[in-house]
Amino acid sequence: MKLKILSYNIHKGFDWRNQNYFLHEMKDFIRSSHADIVFLQEVVGKNEKYKERGFIDQQFEFLADELWPHFSYGHNAVYDHGHHGNLILSKFPIEHFDNIDLSTNRFEKRGLLLCKIELPKDRSKVPYFYAACSHLNLLHGGRLLQYEKIKQEVLSRISQDIPFIIAGDFNDWNKKCAHVFEDDLQMQEVHKTMYGKFARTFPAAFPLLTLDRIYVRNAQVKKVKILSATQHETMLKHLSDHLPYYCEVDLHGP
Length: 254
Hints:
With about 250 residues, this protein is of the alpha+beta class. The protein is built from seven helices and twelve strands. The protein has a single domain (about 1-250), classed as Deoxyribonuclease I, Chain A (4-Layer Sandwich), CATH 3.60.10.
């Protein structure tokens, strides 16, 4: 079954300078991607200061409304006036989800939002797949611990023959996550599979760093695209600090 996937760090709805609020434009863009599954990072679940300024503070409900009938939000960073975290939007039913704590220090509260998603019997030979969304640490030492934690969770929860997708902002600027995801978990990074290298997605205005990843298992990569400002000038030129990451895959079973 073909699956359209989008991963995007939306920077809490603000541009890279934290000056302009573009959540409505982001929603329009996400809609235009026609993705079946959307992995979003830095999504606000509650923020009293946003509410005082007239901004949408329950962003997960706003983004899901009228677009995706199923969604799961996992809050990671909790503060006095609210919280933010990861969000998965799905056109297919989410059977259950877990928000697994990946925090390694008190300054960076991180999580792995893991969903089991049902697929339509009339369109898919595979009854379900797993999808995980994450936003990992800035520092390399913390990410190494998180890679191992993710590996143990995947090995203990997901059968080797079940399709699995993990996507998000890995902050993997030094490209050190491959040994766990590619060697230990036998996954493919979609841009690397298609073009032989990781995708440059940050900063959006002049992307140099390869921070974002989409890894798949039991799926054939069909199409990969980094949606740049030159392709969607009015839509993306002033939106988040990351570029959106899109791919299409065919899921298959054993």
